[in-house]
Design goal:
This protein has 126 residues and is mostly helical. It is 53% helix and 11% strand. The protein is built from 6 helices and 3 strands. It has a 3-stranded mixed beta sheet with strand order 1-3-2, with helices on one face. Strand 2 and strand 3 form a beta hairpin.
Length: 126
């Protein structure tokens, strides 16, 4: 059986406070509903609502609860969405797992590779 709301809220509050996010709230939601799936068809396990200062976690997250909350705390501390170098450093500091960090570091490298000018472009400009 999964975690109940009262336990989830207490665990999230403890993590938020530990990382200095005393003014932030926690919400246990259905992140697989159309409100969220228009941008993420597969749904979300968590999201950081920067405007309203709320960490939202899907109630079906299961054993990934703690890592999901830490992931979203890293977004809250970073102050923006995305998984670039700044987020990776903050995520590491708050305790996001090394497997998760590696996955996002590789995605960031791939993204930067796609944005980097090609060798041909650099030669033409030289």
């Amino acid at each position: 059986m999964g975690m109940d709301y009262k336990t989830a809220k207490a665990a999230a509050r403890k993590l938020l406070d530990k990382h200095g996010l005393h003014d932030w709230g926690f919400s246990w939601e259905n992140l697989r509903n159309p409100l969220f799936t228009h941008a993420h068809p597969e749904g979300l396990w968590g999201t950081c609502d920067l405007e309203n200062m709320v960490i939202r976690v899907d109630y079906r997250v299961g054993r990934g609860f703690r890592q999901t909350v830490l992931h979203e705390i890293a977004h809250a501390k970073n102050g923006k969405s995305g998984h670039g170098k700044d987020w990776i450093m903050i995520a590491s500091d708050v305790g996001v797992s090394s497997v998760e960090l590696l996955r996002y570091a590789l995605l960031d490298l791939e993204k930067q590779k796609d944005l980097a000018p090609s060798r041909v472009t650099r030669r033409i400009k030289s």
